[in-house]
Structures are given as C-alpha cells and as structure tokens.
Specification:
alpha+beta; 3 strands
Amino acid sequence: MDFKIPEQYKSGIEFILNTDDDAIDVIISALRDFPPTVENIVYKISERIVQIQKLDRRTALSLVVTIVSLRQLYKEENLSNEAIVALVSKSIEQDAEFAEFFSVKTEQKERFKRRLSSLLKALESIGFSLDVSEKASDLLIEHERIFSDSRIVTDIRPVFNSETERKVEAAILIHTLKIQYKDAEGTKEFYVALDSDDLDNLHEQIVIAIDNRDALGSVLKKAEIEWINPVLEIEALENLEDDDEQQD
C-alpha cells in the first residue's frame, strides 16, 4: 500500500519528530485521561492539549487531526498499529521535507516510530467516541452539497421618471443573498435576489428551524442521547487546509 503524507498533516508529523519526550508524555496522558464525549472531539482534545502543554492552538489542532486521521486510515484499511507506523515512516523517508532528517539521524526514525505508536495506542482509549463522531461527520458530508457560508447585501435602486430619466421618483431595496457551499468539485457559490417579503419569509423559516432544533435537542437530552454537531470537526480540517494553501 502506498501512502503519501497530505500537506495539512505535515506540521503534526514535524511536531512528533522535533518536540521533546516530556511533551509527548504529557499529551499521551491527556489522551488516556480524556473524558468520553462524541461532540467536537478533535476540537476538544486540541483545546485540552493547549491548556496542559501551552501549545499554540494551530500546533495542537494539527497534531490531533494528524493522529486521528492516521487512526481512521488504519481502521479503514484493517491495518495494525505497527503496520501504519511503518507505512508513515516509509512515507516520511520518501518525502523531500523529511528524507534528509531521517537519513542522517537513524535514531530519530526509531524514536518517531515509538512516539507515533504510543500516541495511536493512547488514542484508542477514546476509540468509541472517535468512531461515533466519525460516523456523524460521514452522515453530514454524504450530501451532494454542504452549506459553507452566506451573506446578504442590500442595495438601494432608484426608479427614475420614465419621461425625463433625470428625476428619481422612487427607490426599491434589493437584497442579494450569496450562498457558498461545497461539493465534490470544491467550493462554489450562487446568488439569489430577495425583496422585503422574501426576507421576512426566510427569517420565519429560520426561526422555525431553530425552534425545531431546540425542541428535538430537549427530546434527545431526556432520552440521554448525545446530540452531535460535527461542524467544528470539519471546519478544523478546512482551516488547516486553508492555512496551508495561504502559506504556499
């Protein structure tokens, strides 16, 4: 099986390579002691690491996203811990950014293997939570289009006298709604013109949806079923990808 390290995971790999043993030990302990949860687990783990290890948020998030993604890979491919560690190590040796580091410091390679193996093993203490969160994210992203962002711009359009075309007889307000979404081809957007009645209708539908969300959330809470909002997990990875693209 061939494996190439995605760009957004390289900073996490670099952290495992270069940080000191004490920092790795603290992070492993944090993973083992992390309380069970299924909502925004990647985000919450990274925030916990920020608190106890005093890392910046991007470094912590990059590390957690990297090891969680590697865990997902070896589960999907039915690989052992040892197999995925060997696969990643081989990929690092073949990567121009890390190859020289490994070739001249063989002991670093073995230390990296031990660290990655320990991190992945510690991650299994919250394996159930990660599996549930992953399934929730899959349910969200299996749709053809996923909402990403929106904006409404309001313009005043003058209505001129039809005879002279100089005097403004009236004005209308036109609201342009921009919807940004993601699909298999990437990020796209489209625009919709709205009048004031359309705005009122849109507002009413959103209020109804929020009321339904809160009502169903209460039902789930009474039934002791955790309500998962996987959006932060997806946004976390997207933010890492966006940062990498901007740096390139």
